[in-house]
Structure to design on (375 residues):
């Protein structure tokens, strides 16, 4: 029996088309390949190489001086290095929480929540910046209040954040069980603990008079607006990477760990996190690349204050408008270098993730959870 006779009629079509494609004339294959390479070289390789050629045109010393000799450029680099990690940390926490809620629970409004996660992809960054201006500007709903006595909200905000973190820690660390009564007790303990922490922290801050009175709290044209704008634009990257991973994994391993006596914190650390780690790292890399190069939303809320609110992309624009080409290209080369490092890291992850992301987890779940549950 020949090999061709083993191929079903349904598969014969694609195989025949594959053989036909491989038997195309040489001039078609080489011509198409040369066209693609020429296009990639013209649109990508030449501009990237030109950035480094112009940046290093006056030598390494001039390049270093353009980057770190100018105080405003140094401040732009420092501000970018401050904004990006904060936005990245916030999006990592929010992305995991959003992906967990969407993938693990079926509730009313789940479709709306999924659409809201994707909203920053559909909204222009400039529009996102304008939204924050309308909220925190003097004509916005919060602007006048923040201008008159904005710090009065800080005791409540700080207390709420700390209390929420404390309640979440209780939910993750307290032991659980199969009976619903234990679950209700754990939830009540978290609510009561969070309420006590909120009341104590609020009393301490108000009693010690930690925050000033009658002073404006600056959101726009300052670091908080830059962090908010960058976080909004980059919010979907982590969540969108984790949602399909969690949906594909399913809840079986998590339920097995809980049934063996693991706490929610142990379940997340020993079961969920190893399974989603590659998706999480991949989302963080993409989020970091987008945050470093964000321009539109940051441009609207920054106020363009040189030496104070200029990030690296905004600094490039100002140097370009001042005809300081070596300086603009020096900063641009730094961003390009970060993009290349991101691409290399992404490529390495794509090669490594399929072989290690899903293996070796189930075997450790039972041992760790059973040992800690038995103790």
């Amino acid at each position: 029996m020949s090999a061709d006779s083993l191929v079903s009629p349904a598969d014969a079509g694609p195989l025949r088309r594959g053989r036909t494609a491989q038997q195309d004339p040489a001039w078609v294959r080489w011509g198409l390949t040369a066209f693609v390479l020429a296009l990639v070289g013209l649109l990508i390789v030449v501009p990237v190489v030109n950035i480094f050629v112009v940046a290093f045109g006056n030598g390494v010393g001039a390049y270093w001086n353009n980057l770190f000799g100018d105080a405003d450029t140094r401040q732009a680099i420092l501000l970018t290095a401050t904004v990006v990690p904060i936005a990245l940390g916030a999006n990592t926490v929010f992305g995991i929480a959003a992906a967990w809620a969407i993938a693990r629970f079926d509730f009313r409004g789940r479709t709306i929540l999924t659409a809201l996660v994707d909203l920053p992809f559909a909204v222009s960054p400039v529009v996102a910046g304008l939204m924050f201006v309308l909220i925190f500007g003097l004509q916005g709903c919060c602007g006048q209040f923040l201008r008159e006595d904005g710090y009065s909200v800080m005791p409540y905000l700080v207390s709420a954040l700390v209390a929420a973190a404390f309640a979440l820690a209780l939910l993750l660390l307290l032991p659980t069980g199969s009976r619903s009564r234990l679950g209700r007790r754990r939830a009540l303990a978290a609510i009561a603990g969070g309420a006590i922490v909120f009341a104590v922290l609020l009393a301490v801050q108000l009693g010690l008079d930690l925050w000033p009175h009658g002073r404006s709290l600056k959101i726009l044209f300052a670091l908080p607006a830059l962090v908010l704008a960058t976080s909004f634009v980059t919010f979907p990257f982590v969540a969108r990477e984790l949602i399909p991973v969690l949906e594909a994994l399913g809840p079986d391993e998590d339920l097995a760990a809980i049934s063996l006596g693991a706490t929610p914190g142990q379940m997340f650390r020993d079961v969920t996190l190893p399974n989603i780690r590659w998706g999480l790292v991949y989302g963080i890399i993409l989020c970091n690349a987008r945050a470093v190069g964000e321009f539109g939303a940051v441009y609207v809320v920054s106020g363009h204050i040189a030496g104070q609110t200029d990030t690296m992309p905004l600094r490039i624009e100002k140097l370009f408008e001042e005809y300081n080409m070596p300086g603009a290209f020096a900063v641009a080369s730094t961003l390009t270098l970060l993009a290349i490092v991101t691409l290399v890291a992404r490529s390495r992850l794509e090669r490594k993730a399929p072989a290690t992301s899903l293996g070796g987890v189930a075997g450790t779940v039972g041992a760790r959870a059973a040992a800690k549950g038995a103790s």
About this structure: DSSP finds 16 helices and no strands in the chain.
